[in-house]
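Hypothesis: this fold can be encoded by more than one sequence.
Test: take the structure tokens below, design a sequence, compare later.
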């Protein structure tokens, strides 16, 4: 069984300005985002990480750097940079304010039929989901705890696929900056353990015993047993 943590990058200057950053260069974290990244490192302190799969964009690397600095060089996990985890290519919408984009004719498509949305001179959200899930399946095939660092819409597309939710309904999901979503994979089966979490310190929950096979019903959680 493989555990995967999906982490969205921390609060960026584009988030602060209400701009659709897309794949623009030079999008760094705000002061608040830097604090979120530091808090994230504390939440993951002591967690044994096998590999980090990460978007090539700077804001994702700035988010995970405080955690890497806390891990001794000899035990740092391998880092794999992959375009499959990059932000949506918003094409001509890149760099525009969200407050102006809602006037676009395609805005209703984004909100109500995202599976049919192709950003002008960019990519389609259905294609984003395909590449995002390719990254998830690649991580799920690896041993040990895997971390994926990516972007809000990309992670929403992953979760929608996992929950067998239509992509047209993925706008009902919320993935906040610096949030953690945890998946467990057992072969082709997966389940959602944690969603859009900002508070949990994960060392204890990740080290606790989990069942080796998927369970029917709600699951009972990890239970410590006293020796007789």
């Amino acid at each position: 069984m493989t555990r995967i943590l999906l982490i969205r990058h921390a609060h960026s200057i584009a988030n602060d300005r209400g701009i659709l950053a897309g794949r623009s260069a030079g999008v760094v974290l705000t002061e608040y985002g830097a604090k979120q990244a530091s808090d994230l490192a504390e939440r993951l302190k002591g967690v044994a990480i096998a590999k980090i799969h990460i978007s090539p964009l700077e804001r994702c690397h700035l988010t995970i750097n405080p955690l890497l600095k806390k891990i001794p060089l000899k035990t740092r996990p391998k880092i794999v940079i992959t375009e499959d985890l990059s932000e949506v290519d918003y094409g001509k919408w890149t760099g525009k304010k969200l407050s102006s984009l809602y006037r676009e004719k395609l805005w209703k498509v984004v909100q109500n039929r995202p599976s049919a949305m192709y950003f002008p001179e960019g990519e389609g959200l259905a294609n984003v989901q395909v590449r995002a899930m390719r990254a998830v399946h690649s991580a799920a095939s690896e041993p040990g705890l895997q971390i994926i660092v990516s972007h809000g819409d990309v992670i929403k597309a992953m979760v929608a696929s996992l929950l067998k939710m239509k992509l047209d309904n993925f706008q009902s999901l919320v993935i906040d900056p610096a949030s953690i979503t945890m998946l467990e994979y057992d072969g082709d089966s997966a389940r959602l353990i944690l969603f859009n979490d900002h508070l949990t310190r994960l060392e204890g929950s990740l080290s606790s015993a989990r069942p080796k096979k998927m369970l029917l019903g709600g699951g009972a959680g990890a239970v410590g047993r006293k020796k007789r």
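The chain has one domain: 2-205. The longest strand covers residues 189-197.
Hypothesis status: open.
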